[in-house]
Amino acid sequence: MLSTFVIALREGLEAALIVGILVAYLVRTNRQQLLKPLWTGVAIAVIVSLGLGAILSFTSAELTPRGEELFAGLTSFIAVGLVTWMVFWMKRTARTLRDELHGKVDSAIMGGPISLALVAFFAVAREGLETALFIYTNFKTVGAASSATVGLVLGLALAVALGYLIYNRSVKLNLSKFFTVTGVALIIVAGGVLSYGIHEFQELGWLPGADAFIWDVTPWVAKESILGSILGGTIGFDTTTSFLQFFAWAGYLVAVLAPYLSKKSAPAPRIPAAV
């Protein structure tokens, strides 16, 4: 529940702020008549993102056990790569995001309402498709679909509410700290997803060491227990963790967190000025 909540809150707020930037720019430049195509693009992006989540779930359910292991492993690796790229992308481009979006809007307006709808679509779909893929792989890691769904719904609801309040200047949120902290949380969750993907490939026999455990705590913590699900979905803890899983998980966290938290990296977002 906690991991899906963090994912939905972080990615949902990013999307909400991007929409807020676009809406605020049109309102401020007295082009409210263009809000309809903008919201149309946003709505289509949301539908496409939900569709991807449904396709992933349906595909997984229709596969053979071995096919499901392959599908889960591949989607896990893709999700880890995509999320890792996105957290660094946001940190690097946050200061210029407003001007970049404004420039795209100005160019799109010259092409008509459809061009503006496409700008809104791609801006939101980037966040939505990433969220759908990462949420799917995290659901597989957590195992407890009911609690994970609750976390997803609560995270998205809070993201939309915060985005609206920030747009209306009803609340001030230190987005620099927020995105830094949630970025670290996403990286930790991604480490767990990476470990899960490795486990699936070990089950397939494509990676070695499936039975070489660095620990096996199933006598004390059941994999399907609440504690096991929480630890699995947040920090990537598995009750039976192989040496390969552990070293890949630890290596990923060190390799990614060190540059992400480095002061030499680009400053974290200053998005409040955008709306």
- Give the class from helix and strand content and strand pairing: mainly alpha
SS elements, strand count: 2
First and last CA, distance = 31 Å
Radius of gyration: 20 Å
**Biggest sheet, spatial arrangement of strands:** 1-2
Which regions have little confidence, pLDDT < 50, spanning 5+ residues? Answer: 265-275
The number of helices is 8
Shape summary:
elongated
Sheet-strand content, in percent, reads: under 5%
The major β-sheet equals:
2 strands, antiparallel
Helix content: over 70%
**Average pLDDT metric:** 86
The tally of domains stands at 1
Order of helices and strands: HHHHHHEHEH
Assembly status: single chain
Can you describe this structure?
The protein is mainly α and 275 residues long. The chain has one domain. Helices cover 77% and strands 3% of the residues. It contains eight helices and two strands. The protein has helices at residues 2-28, 35-62, 65-111, 113-142, 145-167, 175-204, 226-234, 243-261, and strands at residues 213-216, 240-242. It has a two-stranded antiparallel ribbon with strand order 1-2. Helix 1 (2-28) runs antiparallel to helix 4 (113-142), helix 4 (113-142) packs across helix 7 and helix 6 packs antiparallel against helix 8 (243-261). The longest helix has 47 residues, at 65-111. It is elongated. Mean pLDDT is 86; it is low at 265-275.
